[in-house]
Design goal:
Shape: globular
Strand content: 25-35%
Mean pLDDT: 76
InterPro entries: SAV_915-like_dom
Radius of gyration: 14 Å
Organism: Streptomyces mobaraensis
Low-confidence stretches: 1-16, 107-117
Order of helices and strands: EEEEEHEHEE
Number of domains: 1
Structural class: alpha+beta
Distance between the termini: 32 Å
Protein name: SseB family protein
């Protein structure tokens, strides 16, 4: 069975791993720096990347190892290590209820969108 971790703590069908993690477990989240520009961005921040699922739902991404992240997104992908619960809280605050854990098939980056925060 393949699962997504949903912010309401229930699991839904998706293209990801069956790994179960606790909120304090560290995951690797695709992200990139967002530098303060003095206008739209007041201070330096991290922008977490998201993708759309096959059903069109916006999902956050998390990986349990660097190998899994590189296998899916490539060696040039930037990422941050963060507790799973923190990532779910940040995504949830942005209205993203689903987090894909160890996805192995993703739409192209052009179909995803960064979550700035």
């Amino acid at each position: 069975m393949i699962f997504c971790l949903n912010s309401s703590a229930r699991q839904e069908s998706c293209t990801v791993s069956t790994t179960t993690l606790a909120d304090e477990d560290i995951v690797l989240a695709p992200a990139h720096p967002r530098r303060a520009d003095g206008h739209e961005v007041a201070e330096d921040a991290i922008a977490f990347e998201t993708r759309r699922s096959a059903t069109g739902e916006v999902c956050g991404l998390a990986f349990t190892s660097a190998e899994a992240l590189v296998s899916c997104l490539g060696p040039e992908q930037r990422w941050v290590a963060v507790p799973l619960g923190t990532l779910r809280n940040v995504l949830g605050a942005a209205g993203i209820a689903t987090l894909a854990l160890d996805p192995y098939a993703l739409p192209s980056r052009a179909e995803g969108r960064p979550l700035h925060g």
